[in-house]
Amino acid sequence: MLSPFGATPSFEAISSDGASIALFAVRPEDSDEADPGGERRPALLLVHGATADHTTWRAVGPELATNRPVYALDRRGRGESGDREPYAIEREFEDVAAAAEEIARRHDGSVDVAGHSYGGRCALGASLHTPAIRRLVVYEGAPAPPNVSYRPPGLVEAVRTALERGDDEGALTTFLAGIVGMSEAELAAYRANPVWPARVAAAPTILREVEAEASPAASIEALGRVSVPVLLVLGSISRSPFRIGTDALAAALAQPEVSVIEGAAHAAHHTHAREFVEVVETFLDRP
Predict the structure, then answer these.
(1) Which of 59, 126, 132, 135 is a Cys-bridge partner for 104, taking CB atoms 3.0 to 4.6 Å apart?
(2) For the residues of the chain, what is the DSSP string, one character each?
(3) How many structural domains does the chain have?
(4) What are the pLDDT digits (tens) for 210-258?
(5) pLDDT tens for residues 47-59?
(6) Does residue 35 share a domain with residue 164?
(7) Residue 182's domain spans which residues?
(8) Given phi > 0 = left and psi -120 to 50 = alpha, else beta, which region is 86?
(9) Does residue 228 share a domain with residue 206?
């Protein structure tokens, strides 16, 4: 399908450490307009997960943008965004907060944020850094509670070994099979997708994110302090740690809701786009 994003970023936000975070408008020609019904809804910021970039929202972004201004960012270290060392997940929290504040300034109002997987964790952390965020949608982005892990034994070592020998594709497939739970057939289909080379190019960022998600800043205890309303979304056939983490985070949050998309796994924004849009819009439009 044709990309719903402009060829170049619409604008950038500057994070706390000086990194530039690129933001792309969905439907850039009318992203600043009120929705067709005449009621101006808060803008929505989309935050991608591991190895992806803003284009991962190409299926659901245009549908969401029929009712509100929608922007997707490139997280630091990929696409058109910059990067700084040393890496920590707190920098990602600050990146999303800076992006939300820039969008809020441009639209003169608060911003909703939806994040997928690791991007959902970044969105949760961002809401602790800025009052600009009104509501959050987190798709399978909850931290794992104590004594539960998303990582199969040996996964981190296998990814590190592949990266050290220059096998970025091997690192990516190891990650997708081990943590996401993709089958050989699903991996084969993904390799045939035009976005595959960009995903392989982002493979060196996998290790730092897998390690950072175990930090105290990304724990249930820390992110459970989020006070804004949060919709936690799950796929019904995703790996069990995603459900366990979601339930644990829901128990800690002040204003949680949980929604399950039947038949979906970890990429409902691709495989179940209509259902994904429906649950997001229902939550965001609730009084």
Answers:
(1) 132
(2) ---SB-SS-SEEEE-TTS-EEEEEEBSTTTTTSPPTTSPPPPEEEEE--TT--GGGGTTTHHHHTTTS-EEEEPPTTSTT----SS--HHHHHHHHHHHHHHHHHHHTS-EEEEEETHHHHHHHHHHTT-TTEEEEEEES-PPPPTT--SSPTTHHHHHHHHHHTT-HHHHHHHHIIIII---HHHHHHHHTSTTHHHHHHTGGGHHHHHHHTTSGGGSHHHHTT--S-EEEEEETTS-HHHHHHHHHHHHH-SSEEEEEETT--TTHHHHTHHHHHHHHHHHHT--
(3) 2
(4) 999 889 999 999 999 999 999 999 999 999 999 999 999 999 999 999 9
(5) 999 999 999 999 9
(6) no
(7) 151-212
(8) beta
(9) no
202: its two tokens: 């982002």
Q: Is the pTM of this model over 0.70?
A: yes
